[in-house]
Amino acid sequence: EKFHNYIDQYDRLRSKTNFVTITIKNFYHLAPHDVLLSTLLDFFMKFYHLPVVENIHITKIVRLTSLFLHNNRFYYDGKIYRFIKGGPSNSGLIETLSNIYVNRMEKFLIDQSSMKQNEFYGRYHNQIFFTWNQSLDELQQILKSMTSEYHHLNFDIHFGKKLNYLDLYLENHDGILYSRVHHQENQQPYTLPYISSTGDSITKHSHWLRSSLVRAIRYCTSVEDFNHERIYLEMTYLA
Description:
Helix content is 46%, strand content 21%. By secondary structure, the chain is α+β, with helices and mostly antiparallel strands. Helix 2 (33-47) runs antiparallel to helix 3. It starts with a helix and ends with a helix.
């Protein structure tokens, strides 16, 4: 909705507008534990000025977090290992710490450019998307500064007039947005998402189909693309 407002209400999509995506591949293993802990402390003190959270002092929170990080082990191939960066991907705490750290990186990226005023910017998990209306030389310089400042992060960066972001394909047709659903290559074409054996499976299938159709309506800018996606969903539903 906000992206459509950027295009329709604010009329900021130009023929020169490029799309940029940044994927952080090592999202759960971003930085050494000491860096994550200092970032957490800065998050409480400098950005939100919170010395106490729910009657717990932030020094105690940082100490407990340190205890978790430095004593996290995992078993693999008959041996026990210790994380030296980040932690397990199924840990809510690790995801929170990673988001706090990426928030600092985002601030650096935005402060380096004119995105505060003129561009659309968004992030889902480890994937960043924004528009760019300035020169590509300036963009490359900003990205170079970002990758240099955060050299320990594993970035996958793409920019241009057409690209994929999550399950969406975007293309700038001389200032007019074209979009459709994008199916990732690593996903099997005719499979349903996991359906639990408990509960009403028919209802869950119906909810999935309805959500997929709503997504197709929102994503597809042409009737032809919507019909292709509808047929794809019908084939998936029957598989």
